[in-house]
Amino acid sequence: MNIPDDLLYTQDHEWGRIEDGTLRVGITDYAATELGDIVFVEFVEKGSHVAKGEAFGTIESVKAVSEVYAPASGTVTQINEPLADTPELLNQDCYGDAWMVVIEMDDPSEVKDLMDAPAYEEFLAQEAK
Amino acid sequence: MRTVLYDEHVRLGAKIVDFHGWEMPVWYSGIKDEHMATRTAAGLFDASHMGELFVSGQDCASFLDRILTRQIAPMKPGKVLYTFFLNDKGGIIDDLTVYCITPGIRYMLCVNASNTENDLAWIRSQNQENSIIEDRSPGTALLALQGPDSARILGDCLKFDLDSLRYFTFAELESSGYGRLLISKTGYTGAGGVEIFLQADHAPRLWRCLIDAGAVPCGLGARDTLRLEMGYPLHGNDIDEGTTPLEAHLDFAVDMDKPHFIGREALAEQLHKGLGRRLSGVELLDKGVPRQGFLCLKDDEQVGVITSGSISPVLGRGIALAYLDSSFQYGEEIAVEVRSKQLRAVVKKPPFVSGTLSK
Predict the structure, then answer these.
(1) How much is the ipTM here?
(2) Are B311 and A36 within 8 A, CB to CB?
(3) Rounded CA gap, B8 and B6, in Å?
(4) Do B221 and A63 make contact, defined as CB atoms within 8 angstroms?
(5) A with B: how many residue pairs have Cβ under 8 Å apart?
C-alpha cells in the first residue's frame, strides 16, 4: 500500500497536502483499491464552503458509492475538472494527477488533527484487524 | 460457505465478498478489465455456489411439466431450457435451466445459489408423482468459460470441439484427468462459451488449466455488469415472488400453450387484464450511475423504479433494468433520480451492447 511520507491523512482515507495555507485533497491508495474501478466523480461547486468532516463530493465505483470528506474547513478554490471525464485516473494516480480539490483553509491549525504517514499506516493495520 | 475453488481465488489475489452466505471473489484485477476480457477474449467464472438438483423416476417429466413454465416432455437428450418455478400467483420462485439427460427419466435443474434450499423445499412439497429428488450441489462444481476465445481454450484443455454443440445444448463426456464432465453451451454473459459441471474435487485442476490456456479469472462484479449489458435478470433484484415472467419481459420462457402448470391461471388473467408494468432497459444520457431502488420519472411524476443498475464498461454509460409503466415505448426519454438530481435517460430494449467485441 502506497502511503507517501509528505502527506496528511484522515480516518476516511482522504489525504491532504499543505501548500501555502491551502490544502490539496485526494483519496488514498487504500481507498481507491477498496472501491475498485472508479467510474464517476462529482464535487461541490468551486467557491463552496465546506466544514471539516463535511462531504465535498461523491465517488462511485462499479460496485459502490462513497462520499469524500473535507480534512479541514475552508473554501474550495480549485476543482480537478478533468477528473469528471477520466475518473479511472483515481485508480492509477491517486496522489498525483487525480487530486480532487484545493481548500483555502479557515484555520490552518486544524491540520494538527490529521494523521501523518506512520500514524495512518498504523490506523490501516488496526482497521484490518 | 466456500466453493472448492476458494483457495484458488485467494491465491489469485481476489477481493472476497459475502454473497448470500458464500465467500466469493468480486474481482481479481478489476471489474472493467475482467468484463472486457470476457467480451473480447475469454473470462473464467466460479459458479460452483449454484445449485444442481436431479429429478428422476418414471413420471418425472409430468412432474416437471406441472412445476415449470415450458414443455419438458418433448425435450430431447442434450437439450437445455431456461424456465421458472412459479407460485400460484404467477410470481417467480426461481429462474433456472433444465438439462434433459434421459428424456422422461432424468433431468438436472441448475438453480440460483441463494434459492437452492427454498427450491428444494418447494419441489418436494409439490412432488405428487413421487419423483426422486437429489441435491447434488455440494459435490458439484460449475466453471463458466465465457467469451470468443472459449472454443480454442476448450480445445487446448479438453480436446473438446465447441462447434459440435448448438446454443442451449450440452454434451456429457468422460475426460482424461477431470472425470465426467457436462459441458453446456449456455451462460450469463452473452459472450458465448460454455458452463462446465464437474465433480468438485477435479475443479481446481481444470480451473488452473483453463487459466494457463488464457482464460482470465473473473469475479461476481464482472458477472453482474456482463449480464446487465445483456439485460439478463437477476433473481432477487429484477425478478422475485412478487413479479411475473410477463412483467419481467421473459415471455419466451413461458409456454402458455401448455394446458396446465402452476401459476398459469394467474398469468392468463394478467394477459387478459393487461400488464401494468414491464421490465425495460434504461440507458443514461447524462453522467451518473443508476442503482437499485432509484426512481424513474417523467415530468416529475414517478413512472418506475430501477431494480439493477451499474455502469456499462463497454458504453462507459449508466445502464439499468427498471419496472416502468407499460405505456412506455422504446426510445422515449425519461429521467432517473440520482441523489435528488434528475438525470436524462432513454428507455431501451436490451441488450445494450453486442455480446462479443473484437479486441
Answers:
(1) 0.86
(2) no
(3) 5
(4) yes
(5) 35
